[in-house]
Design a protein that fits this description.
One of its GO terms (cellular component) is plasma membrane. This protein is α+β, with helices and mostly antiparallel strands. It has helices at residues 22-28, 51-69, 73-84, 92-101, 104-107, 111-124, 132-152, 157-174, 181-195, 203-223, 231-258, 265-290, 297-318, 332-350, 354-378, 413-427, and strands at residues 2-4, 8-10, 33-35, 41-43, 260-262, 324-326, 384-387, 394-400, 403-409, 431-434, 436-440, 443-447, 453-457, 460-463, 470-474, 479-481, 495-498. The mean pLDDT is 82.
Amino acid sequence: MVLITSPYERITSPQNPREFDYSAYMANEGIYHSQFVGDNIQVLGEGPPSIFGKMQDLRGRMLGTLSSWMKDRAAFEVASALLIGQKSSLSEEVGQAYASAGAMHVLAVSGLHVGIIYGFFLLFFKPAGMPVRARVLYLSIVILLIWAYALLTGMSASVMRAATMFTLMALAQMKSRTSSVFNALALSALILMVFKPNIIFAVGFQLSYAAMLGILILQPWIVKAWLPSNRIVYYFWEVTSVSIAAQLATLPLTLYYFNVYPTYSLFTNLLVIPGAFLIMAIGLPLLLLALTGLDLSLLARVLEVIVKALNEVIFFIHRLPGAQREGVFLSAGEAIALTLMIWGGYMLLSSNYKKTYAYLLATVMMVLVLSKASLWLSASTADELLVYRLSKGLAVDYKENEAHYYFHFGASLKDLEYKVLPNRRRSAPNEGGWLQGRSIGDSLVLALPSHGLLSSKGGLWKFNGLKPKEVYHYDGHQWQKMSGTEAPGPTTGAVKLIF
């Protein structure tokens, strides 16, 4: 038990347009205030260690074992993330390589990992052929191992979803019933939302269930499109069809949340999924056996070689030209429309009611086109100046004749990355270039390509000596029009001026 005496503050809303809304993210987790501890902390006492604490200690011991086994730093980072869900040591270089190659899901412990564990045990012993008592005992052990792994890896939303679903399937198998995967999937979601309603807003939760629905519904239809006679070719096609189904189902969410798409992800997953299975099949038993003190250095070396080989493949794909398509921005409405188009296309091709779904698909596409046209027609053609709110320095954007110009001075790289660039990337399709600035006394003058001048003195901006016609203040969610045109410096949020 600890006592923290420092004051707490409400988590603030974003101060700039399209800045990540950390306050909304934490609110979905049930957290509304933050506290900077510093030296204001007192340890009042210690209680008995909880099961979470014991698992954390075990995780630490396993990390130490992996570190002693693997001399290659990148191999250690990937193995610790893949086997026990520890991504804290993952370097930016390795994370970016896996993300651009389309293999980041391997490093985030999820249904893939839990499914590998579940399938591994059912590979050798088929519960259906066992006596009732033996079947119940065996499946109970499998369930315990699944939840032990979920605890070990930190109980993320995707792991809890997968563990709950496979538990329900195992319980159905105890009674020799053929369990409905859809029922198990729906019931697992319901159970998780009962205990934590806000989990529905978690990106991982949404991606997990979207991927599972894609695999369960789209994959059987996709794999039937081609039935090669060669067993090896069919295996690779089957893995590819799983990847296609999962990526189609998660595409709208991926573009909406991350604005990027890995170009070669289908090819990547042909190699990554078997590699992940092999690493887990060797790595997890090795880590457990290492706790007994056995010398497993030879097998550990084999594990390191496999992980290094996987990394080589990932970095090769990462370095290919056009490995990642960036700058794909979708609004919430566009993401919903794209989802309807994907599932409408599936229903159109697989259903007997083709005319009905053709009309539905055409309607969705027409609404999407009309909404984009409406946004384009309603876009302001007036010259605008946007002054960002930063912790230090200055950053401004100026829109003139549909071209966007930029200027910043003294701003930190962190402020530019998180407060400025998200808006610039989305709102500047026609980049005009950088403005030239000059300080004159306590004033700043920016020269425009049209030979106009923007000037600022004491936080008051003018265009060719004229005051702005309208001034807007960003309140954390939208632009609010201010009563006057004497624009103050952005003390609490960004300011937009219309000239």
